[in-house]
Amino acid sequence: MKRESCMLAQVFKQHKIPGWFLSEKLDGMRALWVPWSRGLPLSEVPWANMLKVDRLRQEPISTGLWSRYYNPIMAPDWWLDRLPQNIMMDGELYMGRHKFQETVSCTKRLDFSGPWEQVEYIAFDAPNPRVVFAAGEVRINGNRYLTVGQPDSVVPNIPVRDLRGRLEVLRSTYEHVVEYLAGDPFDLLNQLVAEGAEGLIARNPRSYYLCKRSKDMLKLKPSHDDEGIVIGYVAGKGKFENMLGALILDYKGQKLELSGFTDEERSMPRFAESPGEKIFTVASEVFLLGSAVTFTYRELSRDGIPKEARYFRKHST
C-alpha cells in the first residue's frame, strides 16, 4: 500500500466546516515524536531514511524525532528530555513567525550545534502508532518510496479515538499543544494574517488519523498574484515525460520555475531536448518565449522569490 507518512492537509475549497477546530498554520518543520525509537542505532529503526546519514563515519543514534520523510532529526538530549516519553506526537518544530529558514537550518543539522534553545515543539495531534507504522510504502519525494512497518509487539496499542479524544490525551500529557479556536474561519484568517501568520488550519473534531492528504484537515492561506516573462522550459519527468514540466520565468531579474498546468497546457507538439540536458530547445506552442503569465503565490522569500508559485493564467493582451 502506498501512502503518506502522516496526515496532510488539503487546500480549502468551499468546504462546509461549521464546528471545526481552527488554529494558526505554523511556519515551521513538521516532525513526529516517536519515543520508543530513541536510543536505537538508525539501522535498527525500520522506517529510518538513511540517505542523508550514510556518508557519516559513525552510525548516528536515533533521537526519537523524525521529519515527515523519516529523516532523523538530531536534537540534543536536554531538549528531548522535555518531551513526554510515553506518547507519540505529531507536531511542528517552530521558532516563531517568519523564521522558517532559521528553523530548517537548525533542525536539519546532523550534529547538535544549532540554537535548539530557540526551538519549540508544538504538538497538534497524538496519532495511533499502528496507523502510522502499518506496513506499506511511504512516498518520500517524486516517485521514490520508503518501505516502512514495525512488528505489532513493538508498537504501542493505543485505542482509536477521534481528534477530540486524542487532544484530551495529549493535553493531559504535554503542555505545548496548539491552541484550537472557534469562530468564522475567514475572520480568523484575516486577523492572524494581519498579525503575521502564514494561514489557518481547520480540523474536523470527529476525524480519525489517517496517513494521507485528508479532507478532514484543511489549510486556508491568503494568496497574492504577480507576473513573469517566459524565458525557457523544463522537460517533464515521470507521468509528464515528453511534456512541459515547468516554465522558466524572468521574475524581476531572477529566475523562477513555475508549474501547475493542465495536461493540455503541458502538451509540447514540437518537443525536443539538447543532448544530455532536460531543457527544451523549442518553444511551447501554448506559452511562447517572451510572453507574460500570471501566477499566484503565498509570500516572498527573503531573496524576493515567490513561495509556492502556481500558474494562474496567460497575460491578457
Characterise this structure.
The strands form four sheets. The protein has a five-stranded antiparallel β-sheet, with no helix packed on it. A four-stranded mixed β-sheet has the order 2-11-10-3, covered by helices on one side. A four-stranded antiparallel β-sheet has the order 5-4-6-7. By secondary structure, the chain is of the alpha+beta class. It has two domains: 2-220, DNA ligase/mRNA capping enzyme (D-amino Acid Aminotransferase, Chain A, domain 1, 2-Layer Sandwich); 224-314, Nucleic acid-binding proteins (OB fold (Dihydrolipoamide Acetyltransferase, E2P), Beta Barrel), CATH 2.40.50.140. The protein contains six helices and 16 strands.
Please give a quick description of this structure:
With 317 residues, the protein is of the alpha+beta class. Helix content is 13%, strand content 28%.
Kindly list the characteristics that best describe this protein.
317 residues, D-amino Acid Aminotransferase, Chain A, domain 1, OB fold (Dihydrolipoamide Acetyltransferase, E2P), five-stranded antiparallel beta sheet, four-stranded mixed beta sheet
